[in-house]
């Protein structure tokens, strides 16, 4: 089809090509659950063939929505930890655009500033909903949004919040359980854990998988070190564990950043990661692939798609089913 014909594509043209009514085309675009799978695919094929794009301004007038989802962006971390959120942002934007929603980014110095931004963006831009990341214990942002009846979903669990709301997370305990079980099968009996200081819900979740697996296997020696994230923190933690009474022959780490530090310390001591000691990180960042680091991969694209699904249900006045989604990670084995 010529470019001029594609630019003139209308909802009526789509309906004619798919041999359905205008209302059916509208349902496929706005409420796909109302039509059969066969009809939905036929209409989508016509939309793709004709190059039809729904008129966003008209939809805004009809629904009184801006079609905008707000998301706070965080400062870059150590070069590795921020990769997961970069991937999430890209996947969230792509998933939202599939349903003619767009992501608006904003910054905030802390949670108080983030809540102030919610109020401002709702009043000035008419943002429809928000997605939160970095959820934590006693998260005031969740309480604020719930009290103001603003639609939202989180990438991260409630961590003790009494508010019922849509959330999506990755099962960190299942991830470290996969890692620890693999190391036990390889014959390791002293498996150390390098994690974060107490207070991190994510860190405690990842530690729990390692600990419960060793408990089930009857392993008594369970050396661990809690440090702040980063390659230097991982190096310090590895040195502490290797100089202890029961030096590990394998390490399960709460992040790839920590794992990189462990690998660095092993090499400085003349030990070969993977041969003399095994190391498994978490997040499966691009750096892990380059360095040959085994790691736990999070299904970030699926997390983003679930967040959008939750928000679309809430915006349609429905309760997402299920209300929460805990997705399984997978173990990616490499040289270490």
TrEMBL record:
Record GO terms (molecular function): DNA-binding transcription factor activity; transcription cis-regulatory region binding
Listed Pfam families: LacI, Peripla_BP_3
Keyword Nucleus: no
Statement: the UniProt record of this protein carries the keyword Secreted: no
Domain HTH lacI-type: 9-63
Keywords tagged on the record: DNA-binding, Transcription, Transcription regulation
UniProt xrefs under InterPro entries: HTH_LacI, LacI/GalR-like_sensor, Lambda_DNA-bd_dom_sf, Peripla_BP_I
Protein name: Transcriptional regulator, LacI family
Organism, as annotated: Goodfellowiella coeruleoviolacea
């Amino acid at each position: 089809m010529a470019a001029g014909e594609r630019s003139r594509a209308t909802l009526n043209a789509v309906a004619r090509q798919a041999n359905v009514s205008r209302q059916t085309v509208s349902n496929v675009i706005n409420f796909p659950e109302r039509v059969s799978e066969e009809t939905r695919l036929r209409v989508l094929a016509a939309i793709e063939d004709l190059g039809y794009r729904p008129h966003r301004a008209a939809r805004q007038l009809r629904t009184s929505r801006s079609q905008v989802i707000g998301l706070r962006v965080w400062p870059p971390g150590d070069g590795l930890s921020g990769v997961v959120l970069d991937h999430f942002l890209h996947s969230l934007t792509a998933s939202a655009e599939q349903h003619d929603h767009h992501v608006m980014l904003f910054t905030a110095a802390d949670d108080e500033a983030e809540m102030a931004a919610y109020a401002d963006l709702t009043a000035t831009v008419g943002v429809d909903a928000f997605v939160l990341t970095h959820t934590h214990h006693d998260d005031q942002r969740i309480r604020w949004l719930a009290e103001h009846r603003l639609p939202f979903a989180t990438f991260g669990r409630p961590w003790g919040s009494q508010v019922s709301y849509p959330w999506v997370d990755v099962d960190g305990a299942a991830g470290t359980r996969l890692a620890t079980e693999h190391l036990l099968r390889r014959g390791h009996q002293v498996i150390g854990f390098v994690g974060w200081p107490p207070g991190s819900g994510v860190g405690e979740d990842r530690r729990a998988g390692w600990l419960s697996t060793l408990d089930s296997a009857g392993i008594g020696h369970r050396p661990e070190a809690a440090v702040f994230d980063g390659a230097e923190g991982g190096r310090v933690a590895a040195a502490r564990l290797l100089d202890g009474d029961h030096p590990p022959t394998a390490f399960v780490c709460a992040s790839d950043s920590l794992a990189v530090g462990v690998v660095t310390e092993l090499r400085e001591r003349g030990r070969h990661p993977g041969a003399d000691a095994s190391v498994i990180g978490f997040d499966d960042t691009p750096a892990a692939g380059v360095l040959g680091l085994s790691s736990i991969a999070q299904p970030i694209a699926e997390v983003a798609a679930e967040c959008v699904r939750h928000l679309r249900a809430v915006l349609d006045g429905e309760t997402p089913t299920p209300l929460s989604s805990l997705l399984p990670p997978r173990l990616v084995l490499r040289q270490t």
